[in-house]
Design a protein that fits this description.
156 residues; alpha/beta; Glutaredoxin domain-containing protein
């Protein structure tokens, strides 16, 4: 733990992998925040005009929360000359099943809150949802899209 904290304090990479996290493939990574590098390019120094952000805020967002992400972009669009702050949104893929009912531990659970209402609304038009997500991804380059079905029950 001390080595990890010291690495964070010294702005160095953390060498230990996260504990208890399943492997997740990412289908889209924000290139302006996390540019792909070859192993030979991975240094602590800025390369090719790219400077590492001072702070990266990763916000777990529901895939259907288009309006909320727009609001947060405006809120975090604060510029500080000495601090490079980047905001990215972690989302999964839209559900393949319709509705707001989930099977959890052998039980059917109905999500009735705001998230459940969004599931019902957006699941009626899956191609439109994919189109909106694709447009958002290209316009803002701030979506970290995981290869998993996004649901209320896999937030962590």
């Amino acid at each position: 733990m001390r080595a990890t904290l010291q690495s964070l304090i010294n702005d160095k990479p953390i060498s230990q992998p996260p504990l208890y996290n399943p492997r997740i493939r990412f289908l889209q990574v924000p290139s302006r925040v996390c540019p792909p590098l070859m192993p030979s390019q991975a240094t602590d120094e800025p390369t090719g005009g790219f400077s590492h952000p001072s702070v990266v805020i990763i916000y777990k967002s529901g895939v259907y929360s288009f309006e909320e992400r727009s609001h947060l972009r405006k809120l975090y669009h604060l510029e500080y000359p000495d601090v490079n702050i980047c905001l990215i949104f972690s989302v999964g893929l839209p559900r393949t099943s319709l509705g707001n009912v989930f099977q959890r531990n052998g039980f059917n659970v109905t999500l009735t809150n705001r998230a459940g209402k969004k599931l019902i609304t957006y699941s009626k038009h899956p191609s439109r949802t994919i189109e909106m997500l694709s447009k958002e991804m290209h316009e803002h380059d701030d979506l970290l899209i995981g290869d998993y079905e996004d649901s209320y029950y896999n937030l962590t």
